[in-house]
Design brief:
Order of helices and strands: HEEEEEHEEEHHHHHEEEEHHHH
Structural class: alpha+beta
Oligomer: single chain
Number of helices: 11
Distance between the termini: 49 Å
Radius of gyration: 22 Å
Length: about 350
Amino acid sequence: MSTKHVSSPSAPAPRGTCADAIGVAAKVAFLKRPASYPDSPRAVEALETHLAWVFLTDRHAYKLKKPVRYPFLDFTTLAARRSDAEEEVRLNRRLAPAIYLEVVALTADREGRLGIGGEGTAVDWLVKMRRLPRERMLDHAIAAQSVDGAALRAVAELLAAFYRDAQRIPLAPAAYRRRLREQIEGNVRALAEPRYGLPAEAIARTAAAQLAFLERRPELLEARAREGRIVDGHGDLRPEHVALGPPPAIIDCVEFNRDFRILDPVDELAYLAMESERLGAPSVGATLLAHYGAQAGDRAPEPLIHFYKSVRAALRAKLAAWHLDDPTVRYPSQWFNRTQAYLALADLHIREA
């Protein structure tokens, strides 16, 4: 799908421009303007995350990756952002083939005027997607108490087929348990940082119970690896990434770090169940797990599901706490409260395991 060049004479970049000469602020300002887009949308809504800006037009969404570096990714070069954008499209077409359209160049002409596509020099890269109706996303349906059972079954069928065909990751049973131990230890180290002001004793107690589960019920975890259940999955299966359709689609997989996608499908579904529970809909996760189990012939024991929910909740607590390190974060109390909510879920589920 080609995209025509669109220039914006009101926002020229420096003459003799190169990829590094045009800052993020200039790119964001350009992409916020409806006149910048080939289909002349009525308005543009801009959303910011830690890793990207997303610009929503009437029909499409465009993602611009930030030139940031973290221990788990490096987007500081133009080549790295292009490579990641291409990988994002490739991987997300596994579960949302009609949504992820193409990678489009953000260009600058000789006068430094920015455009989407066209003949100018590429100064960045955009992932172009079809815009999904907000009301069809699972988190919205949960909030509106309008989750449809048939739609959930269709999502479970999509996921069962996805995991059936996904690349299998050979992992020794002991290595799988060790991997989980390292995740638990990493979570507790981060959450115990005094600057967050979190309940250190409670965090340590929850982590100790998670580690004790690994020793008490090793056969539950080791069986998953022994049976070849570990796959290259989605990596971030949350309600806001699930479109109920029809047809269903699942967006925003983790493209920037393959290690985050190596998992047990039941772990990933338990993650979605935990997030749905946090939003007030525990029945959503139970329904999806039941339908998946029936479709895939993979009915996992309840203690294993509770363990996975607990570890995932601790991970999400860590990620929420990290927002408190951002001096520009608008509502620190919101992220502190969310961290506390995840910690409560981590404790609840390890007690049930």
